[in-house]
Specification:
With 267 residues, the protein is an alpha/beta fold. It has 9 helices and 14 strands. The chain folds into 2 domains: 122 residues, serine acetyltransferase, domain 1 (Orthogonal Bundle); 95 residues, Hexapeptide repeat proteins (UDP N-Acetylglucosamine Acyltransferase, domain 1), CATH 2.160.10. The strands form 3 sheets. It has a 6-stranded mixed sheet.
Amino acid sequence: MDEISLATQELATAQHRGISPSAGELWKELRLEAVRVAAREEILRGFLDVAVLRPTNFVLGLGSLLARKLGELSMPVEIIAAAAADLIAIRTRDPAAESYLTPFLYYKGFHALQWHRVGHWLWRSRRRDLAHFLQSRVSEVFAVDIHPAVPIGSGVFIDHGTGLVVGETAVIGDDVSILHEVTLGGTGKERGDRHPKVRNGVLLGAGAKVLGNVEIGRDAKVAAGSVVLRDVPPGATVAGVPARIVSWSSESVPALDMDQSLPDYEI
């Protein structure tokens, strides 16, 4: 078995056992994948050398990649563990992600989320003018608009990302999956704490609109195109306009399963 296959098998075994690989192990796998791609696509060799093969660790690699995207050269070290968990989440949940390298280099949902983590760090450090500037640039470049005040957990998968809007007082927990055109917004008539709280393990389907200071309970699922105006209990699946409960999860985590199907029900 060659070095690349062995490293891939080791990571897969660790994930199967519920063990998250370290940033160092993940970077080793990314570099091996880059070597393989460079061997078959000569035109990408220079790009891969700068993006993955030259940096010596995940921190430098991610910081360098995002810096070239937005022209900013700083990268807080504290976001690295969350970023690694986000990348693992993509590889685990997205059937189109056949390696770590592809989402690391090209997935704008991943890139936008990591820049948000930088912006949130700036916000908490009271460097809010710079945080707003960064939010604006991320929105322009990636079409993902997340207020820098929003805390976001680790292991979050933003699939595609286009049209995602998250308001100032929203909260997003760990192991959440969010598809494109999702809105976590206000109702337009409130001030203060006015945006949704999305708990761990939640799946938000494409085009879902969650409005107001409502809670989407742990391991809940919001179907594509739904409009949520009330709290969603833990483990519930809701669908429709306005959304109502159509089923309950059975010891599953919708964000990890990525099953967007619904039971038969009458609207």
